Amino acid sequence: xxxxxxxxxxxxxxxxxxxxxxxxxxxxxxCVFGIxxxxxxxxxxxxxxxxxxxxxxxxxxSWFEEPNSKENRKRIGAILEQPIFYPYLSAVKNxxxxxxxxxxxxxxxxxxxxxxxxxxxxxxxxxxxxxGMKQRLAIAxxxxxxxxxxxxxxxxxxxxPKGIAEIRELIIKIAKEGITIILASHxxxxxxxxxxxxxxxxxxxxxxxxxxxxxxxxxxxxxxxxNNLELLSLALxxxxxxxxxxxxxNQLIIKLKEGTSAFNVNSYLVGKGIVVTHLAEKKKSLENxxxxxLKERDD
Amino acid sequence: MIRLLKIExxxxxxxxxxxxxxxxxxALLAIMIFGIPGLIDYIAEKSGEPSKFRIFKAIVFNFPDxxxxxxxxxxxxxxxxxxxxxxxxxxxxxxxxYLTIRSNIIxxxxxxxxxxxxxxxIIVLALFSTLIVxxxxxxxxxxxxxxxxxxxVFGKMIFLLGYFIxxxxxxxxxxxxxxxFKKTGITFVVHFVYLIVEPIFDYKLNDSITPxxxxxxxxxxxxxxxxxxxxxxxxxxxxxxxxxxxxxxxxICLVYAMLFVVLSYFILKRRDI
Lengths: 299, 273
Known about the structure:
The complex is a heterodimer. By secondary structure, chain A is an alpha/beta fold.
């Protein structure tokens, strides 16, 4: 698979704060890659480094399997933090500057303004725009010249529910065209709804990365009950594939080793002569997983 | 090169404050240059000895000395070129306060491109200023000179080149300050404080060092105005004024100009934006 972005051993310090710690990441062409993490986890710093506005302390990155250059950035459309434009210029004039820096044709401006529904306000000054419009103009600017990669940093920040829905729809629509998207967000819901892959960051460290669908289908937790909970508990304690056992109301919650299913547990118990009255797989949502990941590292 | 300048101009083509300042500067420069003859006439009227002042006027605006005189006035340290300096400071610090330098880089500028575009704009501003001075000089010269032979008209035109180098270097100095301090207000303050502080150093330091102070180096290209008057020597006043542009002065200034550019580049390069 062609790599759009490869990050190797990236580090960045702000004084004593280690904003990015030995970050390694590979992003394949065509995926929607979510970078998930709470505020201050190093998402924007990482994006800043790969867009050459922040200097890394050590490590390297490469776009399109090529050495870093300004020419590579012209193939990328990006929004970092807030929408940035010359406030006294109109949308069209701002986009003309972007088009000229990117060395793409001015004629694309009309198309991108129509996509984000700002064409009717194209001659209004940027400073007269509402926040939602500013954010939309930033997206238009990122779309200019059909980039191969789009980077969105908290794209729905500060938008109303309608605006959030619109932006997410837009991202999914763009992704269907085969453009690689990198989306940084502190909202699980956002990553869950739009991304195919995810990396979870905390305090500058990558805790986890993989396919969103894999994460969602993990079922390593079981609710289990029988007429005699104590007996059940004893039996399960002896079962080597149980990692954790908790008593909750009239049932037990057990965590299983990867690869162990409800079927295995039930067969084991039947072997021990225990009949269960309740057995349910608990599918973890990304949210639980995310919170757990964050918690584990705190311990 | 042209592409960078085009982008740079696009940034300001609809920026009212930029045009307001530029027109203000041009008007001020013209008023000053054209106002001096009027001022001399006025003093002449009041003094009761108008003929003396008329001679003075003829000397001041005589080809080729007119070039030295008007470039001297137009480039004076505490005078109107500060308006151009303010324009440059606003232009560069705006990029930091609007964060637009960041979007420029993200969209595909290198930091070098960003700086080069600014330097090109500075050169255009300096050329614009030189053009006004040139046209004013031609007008005043033809109006007041006895001789309009080609040799006389173009005689000291090298002062225009000196003027251009001086203005460019000064604006590069302002650019560097803007890059260092980022905030418009702080940069203004530092700039004006430095304008006041350097003469204090100039006074305290040894004469062999003072020509190497940055603003001195910039201003030393055109050291004095009219030469025919100051050639007059008396036993009490026997001093040789420099009535040419010296290669040494220009070299010191150019070294500073290069230093400003190199420092600007390394600061931008090292900084997270």
